[in-house]
Structures are given as C-alpha cells and as structure tokens.
Recover the amino acids of this structure.
C-alpha cells in the first residue's frame, strides 16, 4: 500500500509523517484527541511546560491501553474456558 506525507501538530509542534492513505484519518483523529487532552490538562493543572502535559496524556492513554489489553485477555481466557466446557459436554454425549 502506498504511503504519503501528512503534517500534523501535537502540543503546538509540527510533525511530518509518512502514512498509508487508509490510516490518515485515524492518525489525524489521534493527534486531535491528544491535543484535546493536553488542553484539558492545561486548564485543570499547573504545569511548567508542555512536556508535563504530554507526559500526563501519554500516561492516561497507556493506562487505557493496558486496561483494554487485560480485559481482552481475560475475555479470551473466559471464552476459551467456556468452549472447553462445551466441548467436554458434547464429547461426552457422542461417546
């Protein structure tokens, strides 16, 4: 898939990225979400520089990603357990 360059801004700093066309909208939306979160933190907390705000935004989104990954893993484990139980029941009726 062909990549092309886009310009985005995060914390008032420009970045030129090479992305797939199919990813452009998601990348722009992610940058907007980060910038919105930085604005929220700037209004709510005292800070020395934008690095502090970026660190807090990164921490929040990393925590969210970890929670999501753990939730998915738990659900997969539960699903696997249930499927094994169903397999055992079905196998016992086929014998």
């Amino acid at each position: 898939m062909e990549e092309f360059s886009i310009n985005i801004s995060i914390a008032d700093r420009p970045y030129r990225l090479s992305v797939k066309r199919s990813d452009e909208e998601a990348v722009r939306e992610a940058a907007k979400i980060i910038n919105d979160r930085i604005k929220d933190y700037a209004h709510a907390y005292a800070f020395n520089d934008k690095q502090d705000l970026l660190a807090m935004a990164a921490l929040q989104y990393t925590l969210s990603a970890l929670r999501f990954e753990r939730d998915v893993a738990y659900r997969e484990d539960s699903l696997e357990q249930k499927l094994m139980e169903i397999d055992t029941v079905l196998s016992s009726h086929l014998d």
Summary: The chain is about 70% helix and 15% strand.
